[in-house]
Design goal:
The chain is mostly helical. It has 9 helices and 4 strands. The protein is flat, with a radius of gyration of 45 Å. The chain starts with a helix and ends with a helix. It holds the Pfam family Mis12.
Length: about 350
Amino acid sequence: MNSASTTLLTEHLRWTPLSLIDDIINSINDILYQSVAAIENYLLNASPPLLGFIPPPGTIPDTDGDGNVLFSEKEAEEISRGVHALETLLENGVDKYFDSFELYVLRNILVVNPELVGWVRLAHHRDLDLSSIPTIIPTDSATSTRPRIPAHEAQSRIRTLRQTLLASHALNHTLRSEIETNTRSLAQLRMLVSAVTTSVDGLENPLSFINSSGGAKEIKDSASFAVSQTDLIRSLLKKLRPQFDALLAQRAQREAEEALKEGEDTEMKDVGGASVVTVSAEEERKRYIERMTRRHMEASRGLRLNAKGEVVGGNFEGAAKKRLEEVEALEEVVAGLVEKKGEDEG
């Protein structure tokens, strides 16, 4: 395919002719793989006798919970090999015939006669006025002193200019789309703001309070009041911070005193600017394990535990006593059997 024809079509269509062929072939391949997957799914869901897989005499085939006959490993492997062979055959056919399709399209459809390339004027070339460009008549001295640009460099410059022109057109199209979107958004906002009624198209106008009586003034007054209260809130927070730290220190001190009464490990720690006795990290870990164990016992076993971890509520003592009596009775029975066996042997 002629490069000048390809460049002209790319500039006109905004995409290369080869990309169209690639999209068509990719779509065909997607349909091919979907068809092969559907065929494989059908074969695996069909009954084995329907596909010619008959079990040998004297054997019972495997079945599922509904009584349907299942494929053996050998039969499933044979189906997989057959599907793979079908997929390979279809891929070779697509590659063969669509290569011919690609050549035909590029040579006979998506092509411009090289003799007509220089005479084609595209839509964005219509307003170009080339008659105002002055004609420079080279003199002998100019011709002798100015070096001539090589042909490949000139073609590279032309290609760069064409790419820049295409990028400019794409950017122009994007900007125009953004302008249209912003214009529509502004029109909707102006309609909402300027609406006198409290509903637009049967829905409540969320900005109707702006045009309501005193709406703008109320917003301004509310904002001013919120700003004026900022310093007061900051001063209150500054006053409350020491009190909060003191509460933290008192709480830590109280927990440490309780730990000392129970004989738990403690350590000195700076809380709120004061040195207090706090529970050690190991003791904290023990308390956490105890809390999680208590929560598990209450949630899974339905038990109620007191602060010491003892079971409260229900006749648990009677149940334990009853189990103890059963164990003692079993021990007496076993002892009697042992004695009887000794007497028989004697």
